[in-house]
Task: structure prediction
Amino acid sequence: CLINDELSIMDWKTGNNLGNKEKLQMQAYMKSVNATKAYLIHLPAVKPNQKGYKIIEVDFNENQFNLFLATKKIFDMENTDKPKVLTL
Result:
C-alpha cells in the first residue's frame, strides 16, 4: 500500500508470539518490491491492548536482509526433500 506516498508492505500475523523470523521475512518482502517500510499487524489470541492488535513498524535494513539470505541458505541446506505430489 502507499502510506504518505511511500510504498509499504503490510502483513497480518496471528499467534501469540512474533519474533525475529517475521521481521527478517519482511526484509525479503521489502527488497522484492523496493519498499522501505513494512508493518506487521499482530492479531494474537491473547489481546495485547484494548484494540486487540499491535502494529510493529519494520524499516528496510540491508544487513537484516543479508541475515535473511543467510538464514534461507541454512533452511535450504536442511530441507532438501522435494515436495510430495499427491495423485488422486
Summary: The CA atoms of residues 42 and 54 lie 5 Å apart. The radius of gyration is 16 Å. Strands lie at 2-3, 6-14, 37-43, 54-59. The chain has two helices and four strands.
